[in-house]
Q: What sequence folds into this?
């Protein structure tokens, strides 16, 4: 009983405080679940130094890894990528996807109504699960392909950078 009380108090209500990155030329939408503590501190996506997202994308496009927010936004736009998260707000313990509850989803129409998205790549199983549960309602009859990809999170340590890049590249090649 004591353990439940401790876990209960570790929950924090978190609201996503930075917007999506996209323009009308985006063809691929990449969605995570909710920004990590480090990403929330930096006010941008995949800010944890051990997250392999930016390294993996740089490898995928044979480019230099972008270092700051301006470079990251330019990288995304140059490669026709939109980036956002499934969740607008939730209760969460730290950065733990497995603890997410009381979800309010982002309105995917913000991007889907403005860009001709051909595929939605979901960065990890939790992002995929949450999208199916909360966001499928935003898809029209011309549903973009939904692709569940292995997470770039440091919590997914069993996947090397090379293995991640290979898995993402396999799916990416269908849309380039």
A:
């Amino acid at each position: 009983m004591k353990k439940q009380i401790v876990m209960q108090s570790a929950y924090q209500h978190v609201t996503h405080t930075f917007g999506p990155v996209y323009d009308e030329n985006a063809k691929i939408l990449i969605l995570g679940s909710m920004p990590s503590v480090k990403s929330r501190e930096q006010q941008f996506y995949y800010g944890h130094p051990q997250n392999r997202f930016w390294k993996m994308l740089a490898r995928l496009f044979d480019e230099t890894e972008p270092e700051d927010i301006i470079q990251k936004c330019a990288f995304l736009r140059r490669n026709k990528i939109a980036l956002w998260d499934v969740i607008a707000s939730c209760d969460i313990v730290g950065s733990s996807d497995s603890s997410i509850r009381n979800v309010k989803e982002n309105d995917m129409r913000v991007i889907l109504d403005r860009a001709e998205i051909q595929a939605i790549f979901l960065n990890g199983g939790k992002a995929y699960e949450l999208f199916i549960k909360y966001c499928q309602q935003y898809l029209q009859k011309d549903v973009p392909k939904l692709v569940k990809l292995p997470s770039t999170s440091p919590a997914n340590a069993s996947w090397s950078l090379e293995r991640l890049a290979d898995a993402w590249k396999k799916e990416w090649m269908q849309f380039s």
Q: What stands out?
A: The CA atoms of residues 4 and 100 lie 16 Å apart. Helices lie at 2-10, 37-42, 53-60, 69-78, 109-112, 125-134, 161-172.
